[in-house]
Amino acid sequence: MSKKQFKSLLDRTKEIIATGMWLGFSPIASGTVGTIPAIIIYIFIRWFFNPELQRIVILLFLTAACVGCVVLGEWAEKRYGKKDPGTFVLDEIAGFWLTVLFFRTPDLFLTIVWAFVATRFFDILKPFPANEAQNAHGGWGILLDDLLASVYAVLFLKAASWVFPWAFGY
């Protein structure tokens, strides 16, 4: 393999990871569509790991996604020619995993629906300081706003599930 072929392979690998297996190229709601790999992996985690190990496995995936965002963020901004490009969805994946790390219902389906909707809502709304976090350099700016939006999502979901437990399967 030549140096040029290796670089091309490396760039394609980065693109697959950064775009959530190319789902970030969706012409409509790329961040929303790009969350699908996180949901699929979360389903497998809930099915195949006992409850004690689920948090550890989710934390490992979250950590990998966060490291990936920081490492690939600057590369993606150069490749796609703008700050926090919409095709880069690894941050949305990290955000979903942060939400399900701290908020889960007894029902897998309800957990996915509530975590997905709340995470996407707060990521799109970007309340302070999430809106300011985007100004951080490179991958940090791409990642931090999503993690902060997920903190808002978790707080909202915890409060809502306390007020309306029936809507969350309790």
Structural commentary:
The protein has 170 residues and is an all-alpha fold. It has one domain. It contains 8 helices and no strands. Helix 3 packs parallel to helix 5, helix 5 crosses helix 6 and helix 6 packs across helix 8. The longest helix has 30 residues. The mean pLDDT is 92.
SSE topology:
Layout: H1 3-18, H2 30-33, H3 36-48, H4 51-80, H5 90-102, H6 108-125, H7 130-133, H8 138-163
What's this model, at a glance?
The chain has 170 residues and is mainly α.
Low-confidence stretches: none
Treating each run of at least 4 consecutive H or I residues as one helix, how many helices? 8
Q: What oligomeric arrangement do these chains adopt?
A: single chain
How big is the Rg? Answer: 16 Å
Compute the separation of the termini in Å.
56 Å
Shape: globular
Give the helices and strands as they follow along the chain: HHHHHHHH
Number of domains: 1
> Strand count, sense and closure of the main sheet?
none
| Percent strand | under 5%
Q: Report helical residue fraction.
A: over 70%
Classification by helices and strands: mainly alpha
Q: Total number of β-strand segments?
A: 0
Report the average pLDDT across residues: 92
